[in-house]
Specification:
Layout (H helix, E strand, L loop, with lengths): L1 H12 L3 H14 L4 E5 L5 H13 L3 E5 L11 E4 L5 H14 L6 E4 L1 E2 L2 E2 L4 E5 L6 H6 L12 E4 L5 E6 L4 E10 L4 E14 L3 E5 L7 E12 L2 E10 L8 H5 L3 E6 L1
């Protein structure tokens, strides 16, 4: 039917046959629906159905799988290939998910680790908040030290301890010396944490004016007892020591003696 329609146009306008095929394939290509590959390893069936129904109603094709995630993905992510209209389609997917209460933390072009997608295809990775920390535990490590742990401050203004918890929550316990009373007052900061790209720690709290971002890096130091090896969370920027964020935004580390 479509081909016959274009033949009539050609006869009427005396256009070359090559132009017919250009119009035909351009029209067909533009009308191809996007296929969203939903990586549902961490989702319950009811959650899968909710996402699938929303995208399907928007005339998108949805393919569900429970394949492993790339190591670089630890939260909600949308990966797509650059093509005509791909950015608009990605924004449409994010808007639909946002209506379901699902916020996409990261978007990327072409690939994430060994996952890549061709034109009109998108990879949608959903990681519920309650399993983000558990997903991050399995990040490949140079030293056999669990990520979920307590980290001592190395250069903070006051004695501080960073505690990463399994439920995605964190605590920073700061001991502030009160000279007049000659005792320490404990100040506790609470919030949520995420490990992104395997090495970057994000701490968010309503008690802080900024999200604190650290880079996780291995370290080693020689001491009298042997070689000290472990991990440090290094601040990615600087804040004034006069505010809450500045006082506790310093290097935290955990180590073992070998």
């Amino acid at each position: 039917m479509l081909f016959t329609f274009f033949k009539i146009i050609i006869k009427t306008m005396k256009l070359p046959v090559v132009f017919l095929y250009f119009l035909l394939f351009t029209t067909v290509g533009c009308s191809s629906p996007s296929t969203v590959h939903l990586y549902a390893k961490f989702l319950k069936q009811a959650e899968i159905n909710k996402i699938k129904n929303s995208l399907t109603q928007a005339e998108m094709l949805v393919e569900v799988n429970r394949l492993p995630f790339p190591n670089s993905i630890g939260d909600n992510t949308l990966i797509y290939a650059p093509s005509k209209g791909s950015k608009q389609q990605a924004e449409q997917v994010m808007n639909l998910l946002n209506q379901l209460g699902i916020v996409i933390d990261n978007t990327g072009l072409i690939l994430a680790s060994n996952h890549s997608f061709s034109a009109n295809n998108m990879g949608l990775y959903i990681v519920p908040d309650d399993i983000v920390a558990r997903n991050a535990i399995h990040v490949e490590q140079k030293y056999n030290i669990p990520l979920i742990n307590e980290y001592a401050a190395r250069d903070c203004q006051n004695t501080s301890t960073l505690i990463l918890q399994k439920n995605g929550q964190f605590r920073i316990e700061e001991d502030i010396w009160d000279a007049s009373r000659k005792l320490y007052n404990e100040h506790v900061f609470k919030g949520t944490w995420k490990l992104k790209e395997g090495n970057f720690l994000f701490l968010a709290s309503q008690q802080l004016d900024f999200t604190l971002i650290f880079e996780r890096a291995p370290f080693s130091r020689k001491i009298e007892e042997g070689l000290l090896q472990g991990y440090q969370f290094l601040p990615m920027t600087t804040y004034s020591k006069m505010n809450n964020a500045g006082r506790i935004y310093c290097t935290y580390e955990i180590s073992q003696v070998l």
